[in-house]
Structure formats: structure tokens, C-alpha cells
Amino acid sequence: MEKTVNHKAWFLVLPVLVLVAFSAVIPLMTVVNYAFQDTFGNNVFFWNGLGWFEDLLASDRMWNALGRQLAFSGIILAIEIPLGVFVALNMPKRGVWASVVLVLMSLPLLIPWNVVGTIWQIFGRVDIGLLGYTLNSMGISYNYTQNPVHAWATVVVMDVWHWTSLVALLAYAGLQSIPDAYYQAARIDQASRWKVFRYIELPKMMGVLMIAILLRFMDSFMIYTEPFVVTGGGPGNATTFLSIDLVKMALGQFDLGPAAAFSLMYFLVILLISWVFYTVMTNLDKRG
């Protein structure tokens, strides 16, 4: 007997396909079109081939922005992953306080990015900001609008304050999945706190930590709103990351061709590094 195939399910998928086409595929094709062409206006385009890509690869501007972006993402991961794990290990596991701490840890994640930038912009000001005023009162010459080191420190601390909660909550979820029998066996064997963490807790957290690292890398590599609101990419170009440089090129200078090529290269770099992260960590998880 011939099996009949019901194609009515495609009607449920069709709205999603249309939405993805309008929100992702069509804009992407537009960017690709601009990346390989040049225009003098009036919708008259001229084929430019790989010209924009060659110009960007030979430009110190893009490489400097990429270096700043990689440095920022590296610093963020080096701070937030261990700090998030430490916080998760010290969070209460049960009871009322566990619920209270979970709510408090979730609060920074609920604040919009532009509001976070505005909060820290005011917080760090030397005239009315609590942080800037306090540091200067203590004799520390702090001014994130003029000193590149201070600007970097402000942006890094702001990101750590905003996103460490995500790592902590993911690590906490991994810890909650560990059966009590593991801890009971460790107590019977008189295992030290370090050995409990090394051989019981850390292996059980590896899956969620892999997700945390991927999420934080992608978010930090595409960061725009917070540092733009706080420093505007300054002082000078000290905090001009790839996303800020791309927006300046596309909207500030209205160089649509180079900006389109820049965005494609930006996307490929994120995709490549994320794939490397995922492959390496998956292999480590399999070996574990």
C-alpha cells in the first residue's frame, strides 16, 4: 500500500520562512550586493569585485579595531568565566535564600544595554558620578573621557557587572544537576574541597560552561551599545571596537561599499572563531 504524505505541515512552517527571509536573508543579500559594487548615487552601481575587501585587508584601521576587539573579548572571558563559577559555587543551593539570590543575580540581565551604558556613563563622571568623584577624592586621578586606560577599565568593569550573572546562573544550573550521592561519596573518601571541584563539579559544569563561553564570546565580540554610550569609541580610538568602527564607516562616513565588505568579514571572523571554540571544547568534553 502506497504511503500518503501530508504536506499541510508546511503551512505552519511557511510564516517562519517568510519572517526569516525578510529579517535575515534579504538584508544579507543587500549587504553582499553592496560589498562587491560601487555607486555614485542614483542607484547606479559599478562592479568592484574584491576591491573593497583588498582595501580593508591593507588598512591598519581594521586590523587595529580587530586587535582591540580580540583583546576585549579575551579579557572578558578571562574574568567572567572564573568569576561566574566562583559565584555559582558560593550561592545557596536550597531554601528561601536560594530564590532571593537567583532573583538578584538575574536583575543585571534584565537591564537594557543602552540603560547600562547610561548608568555607567553617569556613575564614572568625575563631577556627579559616585565612582569618579570617590576615586578623585581618594587622590586617584580618574577620567575615562581622557585616559585610554581608564576608559578600558570602565568598559571592562561595566561588562563584568552586566554579564557575569549569566555565567553564574548557567554554572549554578550545572551544579544543581549533580546528585547528592557524588558529594556523599566524596565525604566518605575524605576528598578535599579542591578535589570535589576538580573531579565532580567541574566535569558536570563543562557542558554549560561551553555554552557560557560561546555566548559571552559572541556577545563581547559584537558589543556596541554599552561602550558607545559610555565613551563613544574614545578617547581617540582607544575603545573603538569593530562594531563601533563599522557603524562609523556605514553611517558616519556613508561608505556603504567598504562597510558592507567590512560587515561580511566581521561575520566570517565571528563564525570562524565560534566554530574553533565549539570544536575544541567539544573534543575536550569527549575526552573527559
From TrEMBL:
Domain of life: Bacteria
Localisation: Cell membrane
Transmembrane segments: 12-36, 70-89, 96-123, 151-175, 196-218, 259-280
ABC transmembrane type-1 domain location: 66-277
InterPro entries: MetI-like, MetI-like_sf, Sugar_ABC_transporter
Recorded family membership: Belongs to the binding-protein-dependent transport system permease family.
Protein's name according to its UniProt entry: Sugar ABC transporter permease
Cellular component terms (Gene Ontology): plasma membrane
GO biological processes: transmembrane transport
Native organism: Paracoccus hibiscisoli
Membrane topology: Multi-pass membrane protein
Predominant location category: membrane
A family per Pfam: BPD_transp_1
Keywords for the protein's UniProt record, in alphabetical order: Membrane, Transmembrane, Transmembrane helix, Transport
SUPFAM superfamilies: MetI-like (SSF161098)
